[in-house]
Design a protein that fits this description.
The chain is of the alpha+beta class. It has helices at residues 13-25, 29-39, 42-48, 62-70, 74-84, 90-99, 142-157, 174-185; strands spanning 121-123, 128-131, 134-138, 163-165, 191-196, 199-204. A 3-stranded antiparallel beta sheet has the order 1-2-3. A 3-stranded antiparallel beta sheet has the order 4-6-5.
Length: 205
């Protein structure tokens, strides 16, 4: 693993070995296609052009790319990229963040989130979607709730990967799925959902 771009870290051997393994997993052209389809916003895709979409040899290695796009140190970029591509369990993700002594950034002066707050959480009983400890969407209407609850239920059950296949009980045809996602995005703060083929994806807005 190349030297980190931040001050040297005093990692224990297990943490360092895991970071080195993840760095190796993030090499190769296939990683760029996954980054493009799973992690980049539409604005970032436009910014980068067709290089990643076509899996051409880009100017930046995947980890370096993530450092420049997100402003992360190298260890943080490895962890966040691996997490976004489902190479890390939630427990490993929190463990490695503690190991490099970094947490997710504060937003608008809010307190830093606890370990369990780094992903959205859907409280079906309260009809509240939370992110970084705050409610970002409330579903008040029972008429609306039944069209989008299945999406949020599916994400919650899967522990919020970057994308899931269409929930079977949302629709039997593509158009109502698009309608449900469009409805979900109304009055939604900090997150956005989109339909990508047979998948529903979420990203930070």
């Amino acid at each position: 693993m190349p030297p980190p771009q931040s001050p040297p870290l005093e990692l224990d051997p297990t943490e360092r070995r895991r970071l080195e393994e993840l760095y190796g997993d993030l090499l190769g052209p296939a990683v760029y296609k996954l980054i493009w389809t799973m992690l980049l916003s539409e604005e970032e895709q436009e910014q980068l052009g067709n290089a990643l979409a076509q899996c051409a040899t880009p100017r930046l290695a995947p980890v370096r790319l993530w450092m420049e796009l997100r402003g992360f140190t190298q260890p943080r970029a490895i962890i966040e990229l691996a997490h976004g591509l489902n190479l890390l369990s939630p427990a490993e993700y929190s463990w490695l963040l503690r190991g490099i002594r970094e947490s997710r950034p504060q937003v608008d002066g809010s307190p830093p989130p606890v370990d369990g707050d780094v992903k959205p959480r859907w409280d079906a009983a309260r009809r509240e979607l939370r992110y970084r400890g705050r409610v970002v969407r409330r579903v008040r209407s029972a008429r609306v709730a039944h069209t989008i609850s299945a999406i949020l239920d599916a994400f919650e059950e899967a522990d919020w990967p970057p994308r899931i296949e269409h929930a079977v009980d949302v629709s039997l045809s593509p158009q109502p799925v698009h309608d449900a996602v469009q409805s979900l995005n109304r009055r939604l703060h900090e997150l956005r959902f989109r339909v990508d083929g047979v998948y529903i994806c979420w990203t930070e807005s």
